[in-house]
Amino acid sequence: MGRLFKVGCAFVRHRSSVLTPILQVVTKPLSTTSTSVTTEVHKFCLETPIDEATTPPASWYTDGRLHDLEMRTVFRRNWVAVGVANQVAKPGQFFTGVLGTDPFVVVRDQSDQLRAFHNVCRHRANIVVRQGEGQAQHFTCCYHGWTYRLDGRLSKALRLRGIKNFSARENGLKPVAVRTWGPVVLVQLEGDGREDFEEKTSPLLQHLDTQGFTHGMRHICRRIYDAKCNWKLLVENAQDHNSHVEYVHKDLAKIVDLPSTKVQATELYSKMTGQGATENEQSTEGQRYGQAGYIVANVFPNLAINRYGPWLDTNLLLPLATDRTRIVMDYFLEEDFVKNIGDKELAEFVETSLKDSDQVQKEDNDICESVQRGLTSSAYDVGRYLPAIEHGPHRFHIFLGTELRKGLKL
Ligand SMILES: [Fe+2]
């Protein structure tokens, strides 16, 4: 019988035990195949209170098997943010993407209904829509010409003479669940995952709507960054109660009132609120935030929202690999703000704000990439939480850990 070791909150036996040969304690290296995925998932305890808890192990950020598990479970069975509504505002507008190994297309059909499909031809699996976004009357596969209506139905398939047991009705593009939440478009590849999303996120949506979120905002532009880090580091960085701002964002620190920061964390989202600095009206940089309250929010798993001054930016955190994440940022301004400012002043304000926002994002990406490199060190496995301020990341890890454990059983 092997010795008992503490792994997460469960005692398991060393591998010499014939009863539980896959459970073992290994400190480093974590990215090897010497520990099972199950062991790594269970290293994070869901029940330990925050003042005693340790964070998820480094393997959650560095091990490709954990990444694969996340993509098969978290990013299939939850509502995942993939775009913004202005990309599909008019009939015929579409955009495409890939979640894990599943290419998809989102489109507003001719009846003004928002739809999403697996972007794979039913004939030979060719990618049907190969543009990133655009406008279409129908979708035609470039391989053999099979054509689909925007509602997914197969409308043209050539040279079918002699085929038996074939129904065009049953050979349309396979549908994917799609919805909007505020200005964000979300898809869910497996439909039975999150029926409670609406109810559980509605307090956050209502709060955001009081300041302008679903309505009254004009899309200004999109910016895309690729960061060399795991997607979760970007989530946690946004959830850390602004405690990194004075170190990482020295210019941003001048225009926010850091002591006013408050955090609320629930199962599906976390929300941080704070105030702009009182001197903000006197500088162009300060106007970006203003003096009114700002909101930083994260909706599980991959949506971040920043609402500050007249600005809203939505961030889609799209995992590309274990240590690669695409950040798609859409910037919106209050319609009333746009209408009440001259063209020249507006152009200058937008340019200055985007420059400052770009600086903040590059500072965030740089620090998250540095953490990613640190996570591969043999000296680090788990960290600790600051109980007074880090319940946002803690709740995120509990929910994520719950999802991963469910995923192990699938
Ligand atoms: Fe930051």
TrEMBL record:
GO terms for biological process: glycine betaine biosynthetic process from choline. One of its GO terms (molecular function) is iron ion binding. It comes from the Eukaryota. Residues 81-187 form the Rieske domain. It catalyses: choline + 2 reduced [2Fe-2S]-[ferredoxin] + O2 + 2 H(+) = betaine aldehyde hydrate + 2 oxidized [2Fe-2S]-[ferredoxin] + H2O. It holds the Pfam family Rieske. Pathway: Amine and polyamine biosynthesis; betaine biosynthesis via choline pathway; betaine aldehyde from choline (monooxygenase route): step 1/1. Keywords: 2Fe-2S, Iron, Iron-sulfur, Metal-binding, NAD, Oxidoreductase. Its cofactor is Fe cation. It is an enzyme of class 1 (oxidoreductase). Its EC number is 1.14.15.7. Catalyzes the first step of the osmoprotectant glycine betaine synthesis. Belongs to the choline monooxygenase family. This is Choline monooxygenase, chloroplastic. It comes from Branchiostoma floridae (Florida lancelet). The gene is LOC118416715.
